[in-house]
Amino acid sequence: MAFFALSRLATLRRHLTSSDTNDKAAGGSSIGGSIKIASEVSEALSLGRPVVALESTIISHGMPYPKNLQTAKEVEAIVRENGAVPATIAILDGTPCIGLSTEELERLATLGNRAQKTARRDIAYVVASGGNGATTVSATMFFASMVNIPVFVTGGIGGVHRHGEHTMDISSDLTELGRTPVAVISAGVKSILDIPRTLEYLETQGVCVAAYKTNDFPAFFTESSGCKVPCRVESPEECARLIEANMKLKLRTGILIAVPIPKEHSASGNIIESAIQRALKEAREKNITGNAETPFLLARVNELTGGASLASNIALVKNNALFGAKVAVALAHLRQHSQKQ
């Protein structure tokens, strides 16, 4: 359609008019001197090729080194092997980066939790202070939308924390989904959270929640949370049509597409749940709250399950990357076909 042709033309014009000698020497382009886009990502966006955004907190805060670096490289490779360009997003030395080089991935992986966990609220501070920030779902969605990347892959989104009705601890991922038109491919909501209340909150935000080949909403480590979804999709092409309709209607909301963890990697629900309950109790005893809680819980659950939860986490992220790349390719084909007509 003409809308997407004009959008691509505007993106191309921005990239061409904002590049300078220093940007080219760095292997990318910038928008207004404030955002660096890797040359591979910039070219793909300009030509309407499929791009998949990837977050970076999973690298810095989600896994230990060097497993985090290995996983990040493998996830990017999966995206490429399935026809799309990966764009891992982070803030380095105060500059938001859309797409990271191998050296930048390694730097982020070795920084670990010394890189600030960066949600939308933290972006301005990290940039202004020249800091290093690993972007969460909300910040990654913000930057992806800014440069017109419609598909974003992560492990699991944040949500309403257990006992959130008393603490009001609700992830900014949910409000971001309510205002930023990016499709998020995940294995559902992290099972350390209150899944029913999270789905209720997403409904309040007007977010379309779909599940791939199931009527049950996945629970991150396991295939089902016991909660039903309002929307079921059967293929990457169907997901692409859903994303396209959302964009054409200008609903200005994100879409959450939940992909169940593969059966062969699904950890025992009872073992995981027991570990989660113990970790939650320890977090309360140690007064660990806010954005420090999720990294603590994930690490503690991994310890209590003897590494089973980390192995499952890596497997589901790779599976999401595979599916997300296929969705991005299907969406690019759909838009190209619309433009020809």
TrEMBL record:
Keywords, alphabetical: Glycosidase, Hydrolase, Lyase, Manganese, Metal-binding
A cellular-component GO term for this protein: cytoplasm
A GO term for molecular function: hydrolase activity, acting on glycosyl bonds
EC main group: lyase
Cofactor: Mn(2+)
Keyword Plastid part of the UniProt annotation: no
InterPro entries on file: Indigdn_synthA-like (IPR022830), PsuG (IPR007342)
SUPFAM superfamilies named in the record: Indigoidine synthase A-like
EC identifiers of the protein: 4.2.1.70
Keyword Hydrolase on entry: yes
Pfam families referenced in this protein's UniProt entry, alphabetically: Indigoidine_A
PANTHER family found in the cross-reference section: CARBOHYDRATE KINASE PFKB DOMAIN-CONTAINING PROTEIN (PTHR42909:SF1), ZGC:136858 (PTHR42909)
Complexes and interactors: Homotrimer.
Protein name: Pseudouridine-5'-phosphate glycosidase
The species this protein was found in: Acacia crassicarpa (northern wattle)
Lineage: Eukaryota, Viridiplantae, Streptophyta, Embryophyta, Tracheophyta
